[in-house]
Amino acid sequence: MILAGGRSSRMGANKALLELNGKTLIEIMLDKVSGFGEILLVANDEDAYGRLKGRGVRLVRDIVPGQGPVSGIHAGLSAAAGDCALALPCDMPLLPAGFAEYIFALADGGGFDIVAPFWEGRYQPLCAVYRKTCIGPMESNLKSGLNRLAGIYGGCGLRVRAVCADEMEAFGDAQDFFRNVNDPRAYEELCARAAASA
């Protein structure tokens, strides 16, 4: 699932539709998951993404709106046909597709409830794999007004598999993996980096 339901308030425009090397960020992210059997796009503005339906993308809306990424992951996981779903944000274009496939395989074959990169002292919950066993704890948190994903990483009895730095190194420079585009400055830096490596 690709999460594209944010308000992009710091960016001032829909960041999923910003371009990098002639493609929108959402198209870049969809390319990364093209090998997955099912592609869900969690977005509350269906008009902005209607043209992506031709790519085999199924649009999903938040079940509990206005609660941030937890709502998006909860909705995508609830709608997913399989037992596990990979969650990625719409604005992480430097993440290697191979790394996404790797963490999904760990969850799919290892029986973990969550598989998430652990980078610079914290989990990266927007680039993680969640099993449907996470739906209940997510719903409990949403009903309690707890809209931080960190709330399900401890104390819920879920089996969490941390993907550490040495595993990430096999796929490239992990410093870039989780670089996202939250504001105009970050977008300018990303464009400059892409131009320099072209």
Describe this structure in words.
With 198 residues, this protein is an alpha/beta fold. The protein has a single domain, classed as Spore Coat Polysaccharide Biosynthesis Protein SpsA, Chain A (Alpha-Beta Complex). The chain is built from eight helices and ten strands. The protein has helices at residues 25-32, 46-49, 69-79, 97-110, 135-143, 165-168, 174-177, 184-197; strands at residues 2-3, 19-20, 23-24, 39-42, 57-60, 84-89, 114-119, 122-123, 128-131, 160-163. The strands form two sheets. Strands 1, 4, 5, 6, 7, 8, 9 and 10 form an eight-stranded mixed beta sheet that branches. The longest helix has 14 residues, at 97-110. The mean pLDDT is 88.
Give a short account of the largest sheet. Answer: 8 strands, mixed
Quote the average pLDDT: 88
Measured between the Cα atoms of the first and last residue, the distance is 28 Å
- The number of domains is 1
CATH class: Alpha Beta
Order of helices and strands: EEEHEHEHEHEEEHEHHH
Shape: globular
Q: Nutshell version of this structure?
A:
This protein is of the alpha/beta class.
Relevant terms:
198 residues, alpha/beta, Spore Coat Polysaccharide Biosynthesis Protein SpsA, Chain A, eight-stranded mixed beta sheet, 8 helices, 18% strand
How would you summarize the topology of this molecule?
Elements: E1 2-3, E2 19-20, E3 23-24, H1 25-32, E4 39-42, H2 46-49, E5 57-60, H3 69-79, E6 84-89, H4 97-110, E7 114-119, E8 122-123, E9 128-131, H5 135-143, E10 160-163, H6 165-168, H7 174-177, H8 184-197
Parallel strand pairs: 1-4, 1-6, 4-5, 7-10
Antiparallel strand pairs: 2-3, 6-9, 7-8, 7-9
Helix pairs in contact: 3-5
